[in-house]
Every structure is written in structure tokens, then in C-alpha cells.
């Protein structure tokens, strides 16, 4: 990713936190944390990685709610960040938190087995 794409991604990450937390009124969208934003080098597309607390059904409902609100979120980003063209938005789950928890659990098991 280029330096400009990194700056745009960081600015989008900041703005998305406030947009999702304050402006979005969809009841399906629960507690969402924007963990990362990746923007292509030409600034045309972006992937927003989110982590959601709750069951699998709640996570899927949150993703559906965010996907439904893509247009609204994109227009809000366009108003807040001055770009010629606002990147297309795609949401994806960030599994790194769950992966980290799994590794921590395995390490604890190994430690207890050694003792």
C-alpha cells in the first residue's frame, strides 16, 4: 500500500468508528470495533475489518446490517474525508482476536501440562 493509501485508510478507520457508533441506527448492529482498513493503491476499493462481540448469529446480523448501510456509510465518509472519489466499501470479519485467544488458550494448556 502506498503512503497516501495508508493515510486514507487511517483516516477512514477513525471516521468509521464514530459513524458506526453514533450515526448508525440499525438495531442489528451491536458492539462493533473497526480493527483495520485496507485501501487499494488507486483508492477505489476498501476492505473494512471488524470485530463483533456476541454469538455467530449476532455477528452475521451485524454484518448484514453494515452491508445494508454501505451507501449511508460511504456518503458519510465522503463528506468527512475530502477525496475525488470515495472508495467502495466491503466489510469482513477480523479473526485475529479469536485467533490470538485460541493461541493463548493453547499456551495455558501446555503450561499446566508441564506443571
Describe the structure.
Keywords: Cytoplasm, Ribosome biogenesis. This is Ribosome-binding factor A. Pfam families: RBFA (PF02033). Belongs to the RbfA family. With 115 residues, this protein is of the alpha+beta class. It has one domain: K homology (KH) domain (GMP Synthetase, Chain A, domain 3, 2-Layer Sandwich), CATH 3.30.300.20. It has four helices and three strands. It has a three-stranded mixed sheet. Strand 1 (32-39) and strand 2 (45-52) form a beta hairpin. Helix 1 packs across helix 3. The N and C termini lie far apart (46 Å).
**DSSP summary: helix tally:** 4
CATH top level? Alpha Beta
Count of the separate structural domains: 1
The CATH topology turns out to be GMP Synthetase, Chain A, domain 3
Q: Please summarize the sheet with the most strands.
A: 3 strands, mixed
Proper CATH architecture: 2-Layer Sandwich
Beta-strand residue percentage: 15-25%
Q: Which runs of at least 5 residues are low in confidence (pLDDT < 50)?
A: none
CATH superfamily: K homology (KH) domain
**Can you count the beta strands?**
3
Helix/strand class:
alpha+beta
Helical residue percent band: 55-70%
- Assign an overall shape: globular
InterPro entries: KH_dom-like_a/b, RbfA, RbfA_dom_sf, Ribosome-bd_factorA_CS
Subunit structure: Monomer. Binds 30S ribosomal subunits, but not 50S ribosomal subunits or 70S ribosomes.
Keywords: Cytoplasm, Ribosome biogenesis
Protein name: Ribosome-binding factor A
Structure described in brief:
This protein is α+β, with helices and mostly antiparallel strands.
Amino acid at each position: 500500500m502506498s503512503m497516501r493509501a495508508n493515510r486514507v485508510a487511517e483516516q477512514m478507520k477513525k471516521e468509521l468508528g464514530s459513524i458506526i457508533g453514533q450515526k448508525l441506527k440499525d438495531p442489528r448492529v451491536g458492539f462493533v470495533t473497526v480493527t483495520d482498513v485496507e485501501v487499494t493503491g488507486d483508492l477505489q476499493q476498501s476492505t473494512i475489518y471488524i470485530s463483533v462481540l456476541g454469538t455467530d448469529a449476532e455477528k452475521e446480523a451485524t454484518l448484514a446490517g453494515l452491508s445494508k448501510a454501505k451507501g449511508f456509510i460511504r456518503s458519510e465518509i465522503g463528506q468527512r474525508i475530502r477525496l475525488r472519489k470515495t472508495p467502495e466499501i466491503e466489510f469482513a470479519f477480523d479473526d485475529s482476536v479469536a485467533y490470538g485467544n485460541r493461541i493463548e488458550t493453547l499456551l495455558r494448556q501446555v503450561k499446566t501440562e508441564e506443571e
